[in-house]
Queue: 2 jobs
Job 1
Amino acid sequence: MTVAVGRRGVPPWPLIRQVLHRSATSLRRIPAAIVPVVVMPIFFTVAFSGTFSGLTELPGYPTDNILNWMVPYACLQSASFAALASAFALGRDLEGGFYDRLLLAPAPRWTVPAASIVWAMIRALLPLSITLALGVLGGITFPGGPAAVWWLAVGSFAVAALGSLWGLGVMYRLQRQSAGGLVQIGLFVVMFLSVGTVPLDLQEGWLPYVARWNPVTYVLDMARAGFIGPVGWSEVWPGLLAITVGGLLLVWWAERGWRRLVP
Amino acid sequence: MEPTVRTAPIVAEGLVRAFGDVRAVDGIDLEVADGEVFGFLGPNGAGKSTTVRMLTTLLRPTGGRAIVAGHDVVREAAAVRFSIGVALQDASIDPLMTGRELLHLQATLYGIGRRAGRERSDELLERVGLTEAADRLVGGYSGGMRRRLDLALALMHEPSVLFLDEPTTGLDPMSRVNLWDEVRRLNSEHGTTVFLTTQYLEEADELAHRVAIIDHGRIVREGAPSTLKAQVGLPTLLVDVDPGTEDAARSALSTVGEFRPTRAGRVAVGLFEGASGAAEAVRVLDAAGITIHHMELNTPTLDDVFAEATGRRLEGSGEADPT
Ligand SMILES: Nc1ncnc2c1ncn2[C@@H]1O[C@H](COP(=O)(O)OP(=O)(O)O)[C@@H](O)[C@H]1O
Ligand SMILES: [Mg+2]
């Protein structure tokens, strides 16, 4: 048998496809793993909307429908969980040695971390559709039209991708599954210290200062824009900038970790 | 990228890997010939896995260089990866997948099409005797089955160079012999060059055409097992005779070898001609009318080679054990 492959090695996509296929298979083998993906978005949507429903009565709250405010937040929260799941899966592969098999593949090396990120983004599709469906059932409105959904999707994918990069950096440095706890804390802190539940103008004490410096605040503003009103560049550019800057920093963070794994 | 001169499949020059202050591999020179089974023998922590990880592009050397399958392991890592098959010390397999799924995954990773990959998987499963177990989750496999699967995975793309890091550590004797047979078959039928690390003397002795003994990151001896053993010393013939006839036996044997100290009633002689001198010894003793009660030939083992080189024994625990 001859293997028809150029001297430069194999193209990148089979590796990515294979990693995705395998991730889907393990999700099927441990059905419990699907629980956070499905339950979390439902939980966030219902819990936040219920707990904070009184908020809309406050003067200055930008919408009178709590779902319009909370669905994007629940969606991004859940996207961060997709990144977390991807980090745990990575930890398992690093600890069990399976990662070596991927690193030994003749495909370009960048495809190995890329596959983790793509997987988190694909997983983020699930909470996106679940929270939106719940929102529609609960009477969410789309003042921004289709752009509302578009920017919500952009925000979700960005959180999944950036969260994965954070996770890759941590996991590559510590190389064990238990390091997932650290990834979780990091994700929780940035998500919590954003403008998640309460609008910036209504927050008190030190929180708004932190939130103003938290890039997630701007990503969330962007993801929410179409649910508050019509979307123009002025609503989304800070979010896109936050994604770009955060992305660059996190690529650097993940890349430095990667250098420790494959020094 | 095509090598201009045909180089040996594995060449290392002054290869070093330091982890902080620890020099896990401390300047290794190697040349493994085409079609050779090369044994890398050493105790735990000697630097075997670190060497394998550098040669297979998983770890960057901190000094020296290595050429594998005609490509530099640092500058042309992807080309190296495409030419080699690797079974690492901890079989890198996912317990949640079946053997067949892993083989299909491996085929894709090496750019082998779906149809060809499936055919090749069946062939490999048959070859390593896992056809029955192919659709069971790997998590339920025994140690021997995992190793065989790992070997099959490493062979997926018909690599010309195969790296096996302690392939039989922890296996029962039966599984070990099976794996040895498979390695021998690969080497003789396909001419695959094999780089094999082991802590087991018999394994190096049985399988390897050439052996390098590694200790504390350095190669302390290198050569064919028989040559190495011959260098340690002559095989010793022990002959038990009637008490009182030792001197007569010694004078009869003076032409076949040199004498070694031993107990009364026994003569120990290092045979000049090696093991083949034993026949001559019997003849001269018989001619001198000396009764032989017991006779044994002690040939040096690779353990003696290791002991001579390091002052420690490898046999047993594999830990430092001063003799
Ligand atoms: N990633 C690492 N970081 C620090 N030290 C290491 C690392 N890998 C191996 N070592 C050290 O290098 C030495 C050689 O290890 P190794 O190559 O695994 O030996 P062997 O495979 O012969 O048992 C050991 O002392 C080990 O502790
Ligand atoms: Mg080892």
Job 2
Amino acid sequence: MLQITDISKTFNPGTVNEKTALQNVSLHLDSGDFATIIGSNGAGKSTLFNAITGAFYVDSGRIVLDEEDITFKKEHLRSKEIGHLFQDPLLGTAPHMSIEENMALAYMRASGKHSLFGRITKSDKERFREHLALLDMGLEDRMKNPVGLLSGGQRQALTLLMATMVTPKLLLLDEHTAALDPATAEKVLNLTKRIVAERNITCLMVTHNMHQALELGNRTLMMNGGNIVLDVSGEERANMTVEDLLEQFKVQVGEQLDNDRILLSK
Amino acid sequence: MSSFLTLSIVQSALELGCIYALVALALFVSFSLLNIADLSTDGCFTLGCAVGAVVTMAGHPFLAFFAAMAAGVASGFITAFLQTKMGVQSILAGIIVNTGLYTINLMVMGFSSNINLFNTNTIFSMAKELSESEVYRSWYKIIIVVCIVLLVCVFLAWFLNTSLGLSIRATGDNEYMVRASSINPGFTITVGLCVASAMTALSGAVLGQYQKSCDINYGTGQVTIALASLIIGESLIKKGSIFKRVIFVVLGSCLYRFIVAIALRMNLPAEALKLVSAVIVAIAISFPYLKEKAGFYKHRRDVMRQASKNV
Ligand SMILES: Nc1ncnc2c1ncn2[C@@H]1O[C@H](COP(=O)(O)OP(=O)(O)OP(=O)(O)O)[C@@H](O)[C@H]1O
Ligand SMILES: [Mg+2]
């Protein structure tokens, strides 16, 4: 499904700010894989996602999605098939546009059903309303409200909905619940689980919650210094405890997992 | 009051308000929606006026509007091209195009700095002949400009609710979202600036026929005036449908003309107009901020008073 081969990325090469954020990273995801990613601050997790979505082109290596080489494909063309949720809930939606308009944008782009001059139809609105009702946040009755009036959790839930309204080939979740309060975070997470499971979406999710890293999905990846240093799945993963995971980190990296948002609790 | 603001002053404020509203609408698209300060506005306005005047003189006053809009689209396209394909910052792109347009405009006007249309048919002179009635004669100009501006408003409101229009609005609203959606910001910026420049140029063409002349300096300061109108209009309405917002931009432009008319009635010399508009813009822009600040001071005073009472 997703085949990343030996990608590297150095920011600001040749300057004092030179920073190699990805170093020969390779990763293969099968269709329907749901992998969680943990790692220290600055490990390169977000950079890996940005490389996949095309926020920048990688210095070397190849990225193949569903048998298509997308290494040099433009970002806005890739995003037809890749859903990306940011850690900051404000980044995924346009605040001065209504819920309905935001959803229309997401829908029009991904479905390819609308011409340049297409407008939001009644049946579109009906579809949006049904999707919104799934969130159970009462948003279906506020479709004309500007998104800027919603809470962070509501916005992130809406972004998730928008990213998956038309099933993407790949869904990238970059600590998308980190900025939310615990109750809202749980709600958004449950929604994530449900949507990903129901539609069998191939998904990568960065988390700083060690329990989530082991519980969610079928694989756990660990990143450090621009590399994937651990990749566990199957039985090995099933038998792993949070303590094992932290211990593994120490073994692989030679130091304690250092993430200022790390969560050990459930 | 009635002698202070005579009917003809009110009428001409309305007429100019509607004509210049098209520039304010252009800034509504480029500045409010796309979040780009497009400084090619002044030159583009004159370009529309010049192209319109030349085509009008050739005997096609209707075609003049479309020719002017086409010229505007070309100008907007170049501004957008510089930004999206050549890596020029948006403000610089506008300044560069504005500078270049000065020469282009002179060329269009046959290297004279002034053209007059006194002996040429314009839509105004043609419409005037439709009826002898006195009421009609005093209102026909307003009817024409209101029709034009309404047409543009309806088109704009329709356009901004299409798929393309939504993409343009999103481009200025959230850069990250746009990058994560499959919107090509280069494309939406280009279309947006072309539409905006077409409206600016149309405004110039209408003004040319209205004033029966075209002057190389007509465009000077348009961007400030349009900004003032836009901000007045936007401050009158905080939220609402796109159509409502568009209409309020037009009202803002008319209101601005009334303010100017009043300033002129207070015997300010015409040369002071630019200063007056600069002051109006400054006030209009800072007003929301000052209001909030005043609210804070009041709140602080109340809290302090309450606290000292409780001691
Ligand atoms: N656009 C950029 N320009 C320069 N350096 C960058 C850029 N993006 C990321 N980096 C650097 O690359 C490194 C990896 O950053 P990245 O954001 O991928 O870390 P992360 O694993 O997501 O960390 P966190 O857990 O803090 O989100 C960091 O040192 C960062 O400073
Ligand atoms: Mg990150």
